[in-house]
Amino acid sequence: MDAQNPYQSTPGTLEGKPAGPGLVELLFSFKGRATRTQYWLAHLALVGLLIGTIALMGLAGAFAKDSDKGDYALLLLIPAGIAYFWINLAVSVKRCHDRGKSGAFVLINLIPYIGGFWFFIEAGCLDGNVGPNEYGPDPKGRTAPQAPVPVASPDEPFPSRPAASVKDSPYS
User: Fold this and answer.
1) Looking at residue 24, what is its pLDDT?
2) How confident is the model at residue 172 (pLDDT cuts 50, 70, 90)?
3) Which is more confidently placed, 9 or 153?
4) Which of 30, 67, 150, 171 has its CA 20 to 30 A from that of 113?
């Protein structure tokens, strides 16, 4: 009765791919890598956070002219703003890591006009590095392609390159 089920997935994997970070790790940690999908879904969740905060403020009477509750409702903006900033920064740093860049690359957003556009292209449009990099394994489970290695044979101990013709020379 201890026979392994051949159809059961390996623990920690999903359909043969490595398990990604948990939601808390994805949103609050600065370590690891994030895919474009995770990046955009996190930003979609941030939009939901802002809409939810504004709705709660409305229910609490923050927008009423003659209400004293409005001052207290505005206090909802403080934790929501901190959460928005932290989650945005954490996911953006992870996206930089997936592109093989330091998390400090997020600071390019501070360059007027071009910085935000450049970061949008790098983080939101371009695919991450294939295979593991210095920031962790590929979140998509891909491996870097290996260059073919020349194999020596007993007749030729050192593989030779094809002879270049004079026509291929940069000095002709």
Assistant:
1) 83
2) low
3) 153
4) 30
Which one is predicted more confidently, 148 or 54? 54
Specify whether the backbone of 100 is left (phi greater than 0), alpha (psi in -120 to 50) or beta. left
Structure tokens at 113: 């006009």
104-113 core/surface letters (b: 16 or more CB in 10 A; e: else): ebbebeeeee
Q: Widest CA span of the chain, in angstroms?
A: 95
Residue 81 counted as domain residue: yes
Cβ proximity of 97 and 103 under 8 Å: yes
pLDDT for the residue 164: 56
> What's the domain range around 97?
20-129
* CA 92 to chain CA centroid, nearest Å: 7
The total domain count for the chain is: 1
Can you tell me the distance from the alpha carbon of 83 to that of 89, in angstroms, rounded to the nearest whole number? 10
Q: Other CB atoms closer than 10 Å to residue 4's CB: what's the count?
A: 6
116, part of any domain: yes
pLDDT at 134: 92
pLDDT number for residue 14: 47
DSSP code per residue over 15-45: TTEEP---HHHHHH--SS---HHHHHHHHHH
Q: CB neighbours of 64 closer than 8 A, spacing ≥ 6?
A: 70
Mean pLDDT, rounded, of the chain: 80
